[in-house]
Amino acid sequence: QLQLQESGPGLVKPSETLSLTCTVSGGSISSSSYYWGWIRQPPGKGLEWIGSIYYSGSTYYNPSLKSRVTISVDTSKNQFSLKLSSVTAADTAVYYCARHLVVDTAMGVNWFDPWGQGTLVTVSS
Amino acid sequence: SYELTQPPSVSVSPGQTARITCSGDALPKKYAYWYQQKSGQAPVLVIYEDSKRPSGIPERFSGSSSGTMATLTISGAQVEDEADYYCYSTDSSGNHLFGGGTKLTVL
Question: How far does B15 lie from chain A, in Å, by closest CA?
């Protein structure tokens, strides 16, 4: 059974870079048809897609965050990572990683499943 | 910018049918998906490609889509179905987004 686990600092100072890693177990991150994504959820608010990466390193990001986001993959460790620069209090959220199945972009055939348990990152001095 | 619009809340009594809607201009051309998120937990996929149900999801969960509106229906809602529900889709530029979420109360 595929499982994902987020890890990283729970507290980041304003203007610094948030860094998280997602470790995939029970399956290979190099599986075809699957991207790997990051989604976040501010406390008490809704879900926001951050970006996704293919095992080859191909990425695409939410335009609203693109200038601050970098997602990378390490196939040897079965991990992928998120970096979000110049953070502010508005970046405080639970950050989830998830497998992103992308079948047909034109028809919008893609979904996130399963998800990691999520990790709360607070931006505060 | 593109948005998926959901009602903030829906309330039903146990055994009744709950319907949660999701409105978006791209839905006639893009599939809708539905996630259930119980308090303090990660979201779980309950409907994909408008109306398909993943294995392990109870049959009382169903989905449909017509025009610019997708609907999640829970037939005979149970207390354990109380959760936040989010629709998800893709816009014409290939960007992925979630609706604002609907809090389902079953009591």
Answer: 27
Give B60→chain A minimum CA distance, Å. Answer: 20
CB-based burial, A79-107: b 16+ in 10 Å, e otherwise: bbbbebeebeeebbbbbbbbbbbbeeeee
> Looking at residue A104, what is its pLDDT?
84
B44 Cβ under 8 Å from any chain A Cβ:
yes
Q: Which amino acid is at B40?
A: G
Exposure on the CB side of residue B6, measured as CA atoms within 13 A: 29
Q: Which tokens sit at B89?
A: 């889709």
Which of A110, A117, A119 to mutate to test binding with chain B, by most B CBs within 10 Å of its CB? A110
pLDDT 10s digits, A57-107:
999 999 999 999 999 999 999 999 999 999 999 999 999 999 999 888 788
Distance, in Å, from the CA atom of B81 to the CA atom of A96, rounded to the nearest integer, reads 22
